[in-house]
Amino acid sequence: MSAAETPADAGFVLRQKHFIDSHKCFNAVAILVLMQMYDAWSNPTAWMYLALHGTYGFLWTLKSFTFGDKQWEKPTPLWYGGVIWGALSLYWVAPWMICAHDVRAPGWLLALCTSMYAFGVFFHFAADMQKHVSLQLRPGVLFTESLWARCRNPNYLGELLIYAGFTALAMHWVPFIALGLMVLFVWVPNMVRKDRSLARYPAFAEWKKRSWLFLPPLW
After folding, report:
1. Whole-angstrom Cα distance, residue 1 to residue 13?
2. 184 membership: H or E segment, kind and range
3. CA-based nearest residue to 72, from 88, 93, 56
4. ω into residue 106 within 30 of 0, thus cis?
5. What CA–CA distance (Å, rounded) separates 207 from 150?
6. Other beta carbons within 10 Å of 160
7. Cα–Cα distance measured from residue 80 to residue 146, given in angstroms and rounded to the nearest whole number
8. In this predicted structure, what is the pLDDT of residue 71?
9. What's the confidence (pLDDT) of residue 6?
10. pLDDT tens per residue, range 181-202
11. Calpha distance 17→181 (Å, rounded)
C-alpha cells in the first residue's frame, strides 16, 4: 500500500504542505533573527521586508488551511522535506543582504515593491480561490474564465510579483538568482506538467491558443 493509500487511522502522514507551511510561518522569525544579528533595528528597509515577507508567510499558511493547493498534499519523506526547507531558504538571501550590508532602499523603490506585493497577493490568492471554488462546484470541467482567461497560471504570476518585490528591496542581483532558480526548476516544471495533464480536456487546445502560460504577453 502506498503512502497516499494509507488509511486515516494509520497515523500522521508527512506531506509537502507541512514543510512548506512551517517554513512560511518561520519567515518572520528568521528575518527578526537576522535583524538582531546585524543590529538592523534602525533600518527601515529591513522593517519593510519583515512586514511584506512576514505577512505573506502567514497569509500563505492561512490559505493552505482554507483553500490550499492539492498538489502540496503529496506524502513525502523527511529527507525530501529537508530539501524543501533548504530550497525555500534561498529566499532569505535578500533579507540577509539587507541586514548584513545595511541596505536602505530609496522611497520610490519601497513604494514600488509594496505595490508589486499588493498586486501579487491579489493575483495569487484570487486565482487560487477561483480554482478552489471551480473544482468544488464544477468538478471535471476546465475553468478558463476571469483571471484564468488569458493566463493559464495567474497564481504563479502573482507569486512572481510578490517575490520580485521582496527581492528588489536588496538592491542586488544575487537574490534574483535564487528567485530565478526557483522559477526555472520548480515553477516552470509544475506549469508544464499541469498543461500536459489538462490537455485531455477538449476545450484545452482553444484555451491554449488564446492564453499565455505564465508571463503575458511574453510566454
Report:
1. 14
2. none
3. 88
4. no
5. 8
6. 21
7. 36
8. 86
9. 44
10. 999 999 999 999 999 999 999 9
11. 20
